[in-house]
């Protein structure tokens, strides 16, 4: 009986969390127009640019390293099998499609989540424990408009760009493998990649990236806003922001891959 | 009788099962300085948070400018909050903004003034609290007293009708604290600002107060003019005014625990 109760309580807790996330998502979405340059409120676009730099520049070296490593690993592992069937050229399809549809957005999301998702929750958590969020509210400013919205816009713009970079790095690493193990030339490799990848692969990857960016920003900020207590609580929020965001990104990935998969068959 | 700017009615606040405020009734009149006194943990900061509408009470109402701030729409609440300035006990400056940017922030966000005007106005506000030279420092590079003063400058940036200060002068040297008192009186006379100020400094309280409210363990036991307060005969107030220390050992639980510690059982 108490096991059932525990399960019930956990389910309610999770649903509650999703509810909070959804509420915050809608107000964040509504606040996005205020961040736009010229049309929006003053200073917000500048804040968004600062965030773009923070999310993008720092993440790029890590994304390059991770994507090239993953690309090379995938090429070697699949190459070893495919070579036995004399189908080594299919490595190109695996890398090209695998990265644009799947690995580029996913690896990017994981890197951004661990770097920036944690930074968001730490920043906002600190603002909560030092009463800065209370000050915002007493000024009649909404913390979502002022703090979350610039981060959200920045992430929605930068994360897809990073995913494209990740695609490129992965494809480059695959190319390195193909050049080393076959008599292919660089031009031939890129032509083969272009043949294998269709626009739809790239666009579905970008849609995923936008979804992942949304998850990372909203989970990071929500964990920050929910911080209660002293400075040690900020550390806990940071950890749980990364854990929850990574988990939700992977769940969303399954969902969206399934949607794209079935949509294609029709 | 002018309607009060703040009216607190039968306010109860609990944190978990701990009762922090009990049946508070308080009216703050327009243009007066109301000083809130009380021992540490009496609930002063909690009462201020209720007046700003940062937390919901367990029961009771808070009216600011005639509006029930727990029953009104988000929009109304925002409009009301824009007529008040708040300086928290911990200063709570925005850590990522310089001192002057902290003061500029409400002006940029809530007015349509041109940038040069905002810069001049903010700088003047900082000069008024003696921080002209620190305007470009980050909060982390300010001393405790400087932070407090910057918070006061930020709270007055929009020339609000109502100022709420939680211990503005705690941790300041006596000269700066006295300057802050004069600043508050200046604001009151010049702009007819209403103020609610929590303080522990008796000298400061009697310098600035029109009326004094005394909180004792979550209840308001006196709301009176400072003259009446100074001559009060209530033992709890006298203890506070005459700085008589609490004899901790008089508490029954403390005595029992002490006895247990030294191994005495029974009487
Ligand atoms: N968020 C909270 N959660 C639980 N208890 C709280 C919270 N805030 C305050 N309290 C409790 O409420 C009581 C009153 O706190 P409050 O901060 O209002 O006191 P205070 O009069 O401002 O004291 P001080 O002069 O030390 O600032 C204290 O016992 C405190 O422990
Ligand atoms: Mg306090």
Characterization of the model:
The complex is a heterodimer of chains A (266) and B (267). Chain A is mostly helical. Chain A has one domain. Helices cover 86% and strands 0% of the residues of chain A. Chain A contains 8 helices and no strands. Chain A starts with a helix and ends with a helix. With 267 residues, chain B is of the alpha/beta class. Among the domains of chain B are: 1-83 and 201-231, P-loop containing nucleotide triphosphate hydrolases (Rossmann fold), CATH 3.40.50; 233-267. Chain B is 38% helix and 23% strand. Chain B has helices spanning 44-52, 74-81, 99-110, 115-128, 144-155, 174-191, 202-208, 226-230, 235-241, 252-261, and strands at 6-15, 18-28, 33-38, 59-64, 67-68, 84-87, 162-166, 194-198, 211-216, 219-225. In chain B, helix 3 (99-110) packs across helix 4 and helix 3 packs parallel to helix 5. The longest helix of chain B is centred in the C-terminal third of the chain and has 18 residues, at 174-191. Chain B is globular and about 75 Å long. Bound molecules: adenosine-5'-triphosphate and magnesium ion. Residues 15, 20, 38, 40-46, 89 of chain B line the site of adenosine-5'-triphosphate.
């Amino acid at each position: 009986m108490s096991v059932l109760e525990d399960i019930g309580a956990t389910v309610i807790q999770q649903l509650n969390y999703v509810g909070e996330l959804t509420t915050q998502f809608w107000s964040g979405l509504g606040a996005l127009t205020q961040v736009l340059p010229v049309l929006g409120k003053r200073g917000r676009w500048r804040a968004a640019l600062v965030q773009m730099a923070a999310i993008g520049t720092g993440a790029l070296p890590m994304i390059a390293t991770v994507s090239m490593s993953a690309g090379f690993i995938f090429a070697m592992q699949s190459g070893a099998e495919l070579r036995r069937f004399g189908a080594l050229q299919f490595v190109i399809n695996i890398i090209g499609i695998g990265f644009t549809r799947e690995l580029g957005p996913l690896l990017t999301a994981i890197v951004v989540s661990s770097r920036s998702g944690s930074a968001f929750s730490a920043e906002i958590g600190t603002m909560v424990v030092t009463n800065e969020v209370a000050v915002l509210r007493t000024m009649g400013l909404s913390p979502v408009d002022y703090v979350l919205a610039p981060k959200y816009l920045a992430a929605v713009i930068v994360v897809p760009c990073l995913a494209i970079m990740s695609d490129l790095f992965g494809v480059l690493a695959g190319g390195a493998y193909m050049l080393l193990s076959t008599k292919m030339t660089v031009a031939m490799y890129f032509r083969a990649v272009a043949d294998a990848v269709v626009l739809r692969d790239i666009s579905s990857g970008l849609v995923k990236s936008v979804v992942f960016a949304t998850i990372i920003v909203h989970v990071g900020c929500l964990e920050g806003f929910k911080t209660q207590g002293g400075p040690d609580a900020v550390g806990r929020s940071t950890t749980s922001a990364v854990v929850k965001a990574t988990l939700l990104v992977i769940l969303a990935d399954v969902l969206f891959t399934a949607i794209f998969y079935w949509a294609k068959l029709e | 009788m002018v309607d009060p700017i703040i009216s607190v009615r039968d306010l109860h606040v609990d944190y978990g099962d701990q009762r922090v405020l009990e049946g508070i009734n308080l009216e703050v009149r327009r243009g007066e300085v109301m000083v809130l006194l009380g021992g540490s943990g009496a609930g002063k900061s909690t009462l201020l948070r209720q007046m700003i509408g940062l937390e919901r009470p367990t029961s009771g109402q808070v009216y600011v400018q005639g509006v029930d701030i727990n029953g009104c729409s988000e929009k109304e609440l925002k409009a009301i909050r824009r007529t008040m300035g708040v300086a928290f006990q911990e200063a709570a400056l925005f850590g990522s903004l310089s001192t002057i940017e902290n003061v500029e922030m409400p002006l940029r966000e809530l007015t349509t003034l041109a940038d040069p005007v905002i810069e001049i106005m903010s700088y003047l506000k900082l000069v008024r609290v003696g921080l002209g030279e620190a305007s470009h420092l980050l909060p982390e590079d300010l001393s405790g007293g400087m932070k407090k003063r910057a918070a006061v400058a930020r709270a007055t940036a929009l020339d609000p009708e109502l100022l709420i200060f939680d211990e503005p002068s705690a941790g300041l040297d006596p000269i700066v604290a006295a300057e802050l008192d004069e600043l508050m009186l200046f604001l009151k006379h010049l702009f007819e600002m209403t103020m609610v100020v929590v303080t522990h400094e008796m000298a400061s309280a009697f310098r600035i107060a029109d009326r004094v409210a005394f909180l004792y363990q979550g209840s308001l036991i006196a709301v009176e003019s400072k003259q009446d307060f100074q001559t009060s005969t209530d033992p709890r107030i006298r203890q506070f005014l005459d700085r008589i220390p609490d004899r901790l050992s008089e508490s029954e639980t403390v005595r029992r625990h002490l006895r247990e510690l030294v191994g005495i059982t029974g009487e």
